[in-house]
Amino acid sequence: MLLEALYHVPRDKWAYAYDTETIHLRVRTKRNDVDCVVALTGDKYDWDPTYYEIMMEKAASDDMFDYWEAAVRPKYKRLCYTFRISAGSENIYLLDNGVHQECPQPPNHYYEFPYIHSIDLFTVPDWAKDAVFYQIMTERFAKGDPTIDPEGTEEWGGIPKLDNFFGGDLLGVLNHLDDLQELGINAIYFTPLFLSPSNHKYDIVDYKKVDPHFGSNQLLKQLVAECHKKGIRVMLDAVFNHCSDKFPPFQDVLEKGEYSVYKDWFHMNSFPAEIIDGIPTYDTFGFFGNMPKFNTANPEVKSYLLEVAEYWIKEIKVDGWRLDVANEVDHHFWRDFRKVVKNANPEAYIVGEVWSDSLTWLLGDQFDSVMNYPFSGTVLEFFNGGMNGVTFGHRIGALLMRYPQQTNEVVFNLLGSHDTPRLLTCVGEDKRRLKLAVVFLFTFMGTPCIYYGDEIGLSGNQDPDCRKCMEWEEEKQDRELYNFYRGMIALRKKNKALREGRFRILQAHESNSCIVYERADTVSHFTIWMNNGSEPRTLSHPMETDDWLDAMTGHPVVPQDGMMNISLDPYGYQILCRSLE
Predict the structure, then answer these.
(1) 155, 165, 229: which is closest to 196 by C-alpha?
(2) Which of 150, 185, 301, 520 is buried deepest, with most CB atoms within 10 A?
(3) Which keywords fit this entry according to its UniProt record (predicted)?
(4) Exposed, middle or buried: residue 71 (CB in 10 Å: 0-12, 13-18, 19+)?
(5) How far apart are CA 132 and CA 183, in angstroms?
(6) 43 burial via Cβ count (<10 Å: 0-12, 13-18, 19+)
């Protein structure tokens, strides 16, 4: 065994409380290097009566490592443990002080999980596990009240530019709630709605006022209430990293310089506040002078922004916040943000915009979830032919091992957004590839999100092209694609196994891009078969029972001599299911 590859620490994603009675343990070994890993567990104050050995499951693999996992239910909410790792006739023990050839007398040098404290438990909103989100840019979704259009509003459906307007508003969204309900979504993520000079609204002037070109605070309150009547949750976008240069406190800094009472609200490097050779004399989002960066460590700034976060939760009854540029805001602010938001609504869903590994924010004291761009990047690369099945399986396994299970169950999975090219464009306008990616999205762990218009075939390259107006004329929509999305949403919502069940790759190939994987809980078992290639293929896998059905049609699919053989067209898929009750 390669001992240098062994890894475990008694914290973070490696040892954590999943609920008030269960501790999850993970350990890492070199890939294909060991036969089994057994967790030796007990209570350090009462070892012999509580001693229990648990065979760990190989939960995932990546290019270099295997990851083993076990759920332990200690008798007294505390745990003392070590790992016995076996390869052939060789056994070693992984303990808190290193690797041992012999197992010492417990609890000497064993790992410890001292106690499951309910107050320390990382809990996420249960409703987020069942949510199917739909991202809306209000300015581009639907026009409801042309009397509040911005000056110079262009005809609906024109070419999007960085600075043009088409007049979408909140009444337009309200008028189309039935359409969203028919699609099957049960949660909306709105990009910013507050007063701002831009079409995207990420440069905010007034954080407590809905932009008049969208409507009013009262209209948003009405919209949220109507959404709730239809079983739809609402998440708003919080831009707390920066504001608009038209934000009144920053205007005061521009006017009074170092004598402004608001100078410490921002990161001022010199005065006056100006732009020299393209670089502002104050910190900004990127180098955009019109988006000065807040000093969120300043008590007055923190108080102001936390009051804003609480206001929209309490007064408008929104169900959560998506946090823009979350990784550029200090952790102290986010810890206090979580306390304020969860106090206002314990079931509020907090999603940070972080584009890379985000474990630092996902330990129970800051966010519930993050926008899972590493997921979308991996999925799009695979279904565009950029890797074989084995590599894809390894990448997905590595993603699952980034976070604790409760985060994996609600991580915000997306295939496109206002910041990326459209999904259809990403897959070269090939609907077969798009469907494979969407099938994976809806049969994988996490909370899926659809970017408005993807379901009816909108295309578009990078911003601003990805921010086209929604197409509402059915004859101009791809209704076959719409019905596909509707079917996948319904399948996920109907089956808890597709939302919370275990995920495991059953088959992956180095020579091609075919994969077979499963989702299962105690009620149902799904297998998903995919041919991500340009030639027809027949995939085979052992199946012991003959009670499988096609999940989309309900037709029986019977194995032969214990082997399931599934013939797939190029870029084809099939979803099988069976009841375990």
Answers:
(1) 165
(2) 185
(3) Glycosidase, Hydrolase
(4) middle
(5) 10
(6) buried
Instruction: Determine the Cα–Cα distance for residues 377 and 332; give it in Å rounded to an integer.
Output: 30
The residue whose two tokens read 């078969």 is: 529
Measured distance CA(140)–CA(173) in Å, rounded? 10
- The CA distance from 468 to 485, in Å, is 20
253 token code pair: 């800094």
CB 305 within 8 Å of CB 295: no
Beta bridge partners of 72: 23
Q: Indicate yes or no: pTM above 0.90.
A: yes
Q: CA–CA separation, 453 vs 471, rounded Å?
A: 7
Q: In which residue are the tokens 């899926």 written?
A: 448
Which DSSP state fits 247? S
In tens digits, the chain (581 residues) has pLDDT values of 999 999 999 999 999 999 999 999 999 999 999 999 999 999 999 999 999 999 999 999 999 999 999 999 999 999 999 999 999 999 999 999 999 999 999 999 999 999 999 999 999 999 999 999 999 999 999 999 999 999 999 999 999 999 999 999 999 999 999 999 999 999 999 999 999 999 999 999 999 999 999 999 999 999 999 999 999 999 999 999 999 999 999 999 999 999 999 999 999 999 999 999 999 999 999 999 999 999 999 999 999 999 999 999 999 999 999 999 999 999 999 999 999 999 999 999 999 999 999 999 999 999 999 999 999 999 999 999 999 999 999 999 999 999 999 999 999 999 999 999 999 999 999 999 999 999 999 999 999 999 999 999 999 999 999 999 999 999 999 999 999 999 999 999 999 999 999 999 999 988 889 999 999 999 999 999 999 999 999 999 999 899 999 999 999 999 999 999 999 999 999 999 999 98
**CA distance readout (Å), 468 to 190, 408, 478:** 16, 31, 16
Q: How far apart are CA 430 and CA 436, in angstroms?
A: 10
- Fill in the amino acid letter for 298: N
Amino acid identity at 332: H
One-letter amino acid at 438 equals V
Q: What are phi and psi of 146, to 5 degrees?
A: -65, -15
Give catalytic residues, as residue numbers: 324, 353
State residue 79 phi and psi, 5-degree precision. -145, 140
Tokens linked to 517: 């994987």
Q: Structural domains in the chain?
A: 3-120 (2.60.40.10), 242-295 (3.90.400.10), 502-579 (2.60.40.1180)
Three-state SS annotation for 47-108: HHHHCEEEECEEEEECCCEEEEEEEECCCCCCEEEEEEEEECCEEEEEECCEEECCCCCCCC
- CA-to-CA dists, residue 51 to 104, 247, 433, angstroms: 14, 62, 50
